[in-house]
Write a structure and sequence with these properties.
about 350 residues; 8-stranded mixed beta sheet; globular; iron; rSAM_sf; ArsS-like_C
Length: about 350
């Protein structure tokens, strides 16, 4: 494993309140709301509600260096069937187009396949945020065929096309396992020419920089993976490392937090603001509580509507018009070309 979870290390940073306290010490970083005002932009507010993103738990077969969920094999939090059913009832609203399943390794939740099949029966687009190595684990090796049969879109993490860089972030042997998993996905039709099965790869920086231009990086990934391993994929997206959880711990340990936060602020791009994911998404944690995004979820920053903070109290209309809760970590989504669960927000 690349590391132990913060919880297992008994790190103070396992507590979201400690993470927020440290971010608040960065007094050279303007409050995100003040930055919006300086650029004559309105405070963030939801524009619609198209995606229901469900974190099915923090249980994972990997312990990656930059995981903002602090997931791992020693975590046992998983969503139970009662909240799964609440999520599915909410998903039935015609305004929702997409069910976005994440974790941990979402596939390790025993109700993962139920959510996929029920979501497909509703005619929804289903996304599985997959770490790839889970597809080779005992008990999960039939997942490629299942996902293909349900036409699930796979968004798969592959931090780099170089083995050394990927293993440095995800653990020894992770790259070779990821390559085997991608070849399995190609075998069942994912990412290959003339197939409707979409396979998206996800890049996030190994060091302390912002992601490079998404289009150029995709071309490099495609050439490297095709030439060296015969692997095809649909597209690649880039995601900026968010200064929370394990990545925040690394920044603090390396005394790089101030420099990284300054880099995010200096790269603030007002053109990315209208497209940030929180304006069209609602995030559900394993206990059923609601957040504006997956990052706010990990910082325990609930939605701004006290009476609508649990999926059992879901009300589409009020949540689709809610004010978004922001903090200094939000610069991670608006730096450079921007960053979201769908990749860069502002590309040439």
């Amino acid at each position: 494993m690349a590391s132990l979870t913060l919880l297992r290390q008994q790190s103070k940073l396992a507590d979201p309140r400690e993470q927020l306290r440290i971010l608040d010490t960065q007094e050279h970083v303007p409050r995100f709301a003040d930055q919006l005002e300086q650029h004559q932009l309105p405070l963030l507010q939801a524009a619609t509600l198209e995606t229901l993103q469900v974190n099915l738990g923090r249980l994972c077969n990997m312990t990656c260096e930059h995981c903002h969920v602090d997931a791992g094999p020693d975590r046992r939090e998983i969503m139970q069937i009662e909240n799964v059913e609440h999520c599915l009832r909410a998903l039935a609203h015609p305004g929702f187009e997409t069910l976005d399943l994440t974790g941990g390794a979402p596939e390790m939740n025993p109700h993962f396949r139920l959510m996929v099949t029920r979501g497909r029966e509703m005619g929804k687009r289903i996304i599985d945020r997959c770490n790839l190595t889970i597809l080779l684990a005992p008990g999960y090796q039939d997942l490629p065929e299942f996902l293909a049969s349900q036409e699930v879109e796979i968004v798969a993490s592959l931090p780099c096309y170089l083995e050394e860089n990927t293993d440095a972030q995800r653990g020894s042997g992770a790259f070779q396992k990821s390559i085997q998993a991608l070849q399995r996905l190609n075998e069942v039709g994912y990412g290959v020419a003339d197939s409707s099965l979409k396979l998206t790869l996800v890049y996030n920086p190994v060091g302390y920089s912002l992601p490079p231009y998404q289009g150029q990086l995709e071309a490099a990934y495609r050439e490297q993976l095709r030439t060296r391993f015969g692997i095809e994929f649909t597209n690649l997206i880039t995601i900026t490392n968010m200064p929370i959880s394990r990545y925040l711990s690394e920044l603090v340990e390396q005394d790089r937090l101030e420099a990284y936060m300054s880099r995010l602020v200096e790269a603030f791009n007002p053109e990315t603001v209208p497209g940030v994911m929180c304006r069209s998404l609602i995030s559900v944690d394993w206990e059923g509580y609601l957040y504006d995004c997956d990052f706010n979820q990990m910082l325990a920053l609930p939605v701004s509507l006290p009476e609508r903070r649990h999926i059992s109290d879901f009300d589409y209309a009020s949540l689709a018009e809610r004010k978004i809760v922001t903090q200094r970590h939000c610069y991670g989504c608006t730096a450079g070309a921007g960053s979201s669960c769908g990749g860069a927000l502002n590309t040439p």
